[in-house]
Amino acid sequence: MSITVTVRDETAAGDAYHQAPLELPSERVTVRELLRARVYQEVQDYNQQQGDQAFRGLVQPTDAERVLNGGRAEYRMKKPRQIDWKTQFEKAQAAFEENAFLVLAGDQQAAKLDEELAIAAGEEVAFVKLTPLVGG
User: Fold this and answer.
1) 86 to each of 36, 91, 105, 107, 127, how far by Cα in Å?
2) Which CA distances in Å does 90 have to 3, 84, 124?
3) Of the candidates 130, 94, 71, 55, which has an alpha carbon nearest to the alpha carbon of residue 63?
4) pLDDT band at 28 (very low <50, low <70, confident <90, very high)
5) Residues with Cβ within 8 Å of residue 51, at least 6 apart in sequence
6) By the 8 A CB rule, do 43 and 92 touch?
7) What is the pLDDT of residue 116?
8) Distance between start and end Cα atoms, the chain
């Protein structure tokens, strides 16, 4: 049974700057599955948009410029193009393993990609960025 949670991006100082709903396949998911679902959804949302929309995601796409807008990070492509979710996902996994960001689900801090998290419907999952992330 799928559940919906809220993913929230935060700075290391604890300031939240972006949040969005995310559907997960169940209440028990690995960090890798959580990353995959998040990255896939945000890339699909961007790729389906028409026009010059900003990409708001965990990993900055390659050949994109960071734009600060009201305290939240957005990325604009130098040339309009589709983003490859698999490249973004690979970069997100590597960044997690390099401690570029933390994943906090309820009172749990994830330590490994294959660690299983118990996440209740409606719960918030925080992604605390420690360094800028650049990907596909």
Assistant:
1) 9, 9, 24, 29, 19
2) 24, 10, 23
3) 55
4) very high
5) none
6) no
7) 96
8) 31
Q: Letter for the amino acid at 30?
A: T
SS3 for 38?
helix
The whole-angstrom separation of Cα 8 and Cα 56 is 12
What is the mean pLDDT of the segment spanning 79-96? 93
Q: Report the C-alpha gap between 131 and 119 in whole angstroms.
A: 25
Residue 47's pLDDT is: 92
What whole-number distance in Å separates Cα of residue 107 and Cα of residue 119? 10
What is the three-class DSSP state of 49? Answer: coil
Give the alpha-carbon dihedral of 132, 77, 85, 7, to 10 degrees. Answer: 50
Specify the range with the lowest mean pLDDT, choosing from 25-29, 70-74, 127-131. Answer: 70-74
Per-residue pLDDT band at 49 (split at 50, 70, 90): confident
Main-chain phi, psi angles of 90, to 5 degrees = -60, -45
* Unique residue bearing structure tokens 């209440």: 27
> Tokens 């390099």 map to which residue?
98
